[in-house]
Amino acid sequence: MKVTHTGVAALAAGAVAAPSNTAPRAAGKAAAACDSAVTLDASTNVFKNYKLHANTFYRGEVEKAVGQMTDASLKDQAAKVADVGSFLWLDNIANIAKFDPAVADLPCDEILGLVIYDLPGRDCAAKASNGELKYNELDRYKTEYVDPIVEKIKANPNSAFALLIEPDSLPNLVTNADLQTCKDSKTSYEEGVAYSLKSLNLPNVVMYVDAGHGGWLGWDANLDPGAEELAKVYKNAGSPKQVRGYATNIAGWNAWDEEPGEFSDASDAKYNSCQNERTYVTKFSAALQSAGFPNHAIVDTGRNAVTGLRDEWGDWCNVNGAGFGVRPTADTGMELADAFVWGKPGGESDGTSDEGATRYDSYCGKPDAYKPSPEAGEWNQAYFEMLLQNASPKF
What we know:
Elements: E1 4-5, E2 51-52, H1 56-67, H2 72-81, E3 88-90, H3 99-104, E4 110-116, H4 138-154, E5 160-165, H5 169-175, H6 180-199, E6 205-210, H7 223-236, E7 243-248, H8 277-291, E8 296-300, E9 306-307, E10 337-341, H9 381-389
Parallel strand pairs: 2-4, 3-4, 4-5, 5-6, 6-7, 7-8, 8-10
Antiparallel strand pairs: 1-9
């Protein structure tokens, strides 16, 4: 299969201007929250005013990785990764504790990206990233997970937050509705996401609901049902005004604008016109507008520098040969695409390749998956170095 670097790599991560609606910090004051309460206008692209923050947790992982390297040139490149903004995954109740240190050094002109990711029966169509809550524990999700996050954000009114809401959840209800696990989780998914949207609808927050990617909801038969599912949950939440749109390609591998597309020569390509994420954003945004859902997107380019590596669209686990992609920027060249972001922190595993592990998923053992790989979320030093070596643009 042909291996190519995506065309979007030519775009440089541009500097982001300081926000115009916040008071500047006093001279000599250390990097910290703004001097007054932040109000984000979700009818606009906030990434034009705020830079995605390089959070302390990922910085720590990268700095530890640098310490394990011996190649001086590679170490220099790796050190620069620590300065790249990325989303922090609050993927269980215990990891809410990551919030406080992450916000402690957040400057006024930067926005902290957080992934809200702990639905009951999480990832109903996969094993590698199954969550801690059973499908019938919606009350725990609300009171032990969402509510504490709400309180922490309320306690930091002078800071800006971008929230990525529940990766893979609503797309699974569209395409995997026949699985018993997804049938069991349907109510908790829809009610849980609606509760998150309603509860987190705070003035210093902007939200993006996960919408899979072009190889998932981008199939011609999935575009309208996908849009209708997101719109239904959004409306059930009371159409919260801080919802800006949706997120695509999170933890994914799809090219932004490669033509004719990575899987354009597949036998079933005629059923999917969204062969890259740019086309997906164009088509899905139109479907969302018709369904009554805000239709601007953020796109994960954290690991999509190299294409032609997967055997099929659905191969999602630790793709071998991948590379870091374009750095976070609001310069996407498309009004509907608010920003390229790093949604998945590169170096953290998608799932274990240990066939004897409880959470082993067969996709992590496929020929195009990197091996060995640890449990989902755990650090994989060799994989991080591979991403760095294959980065485009280079560090």
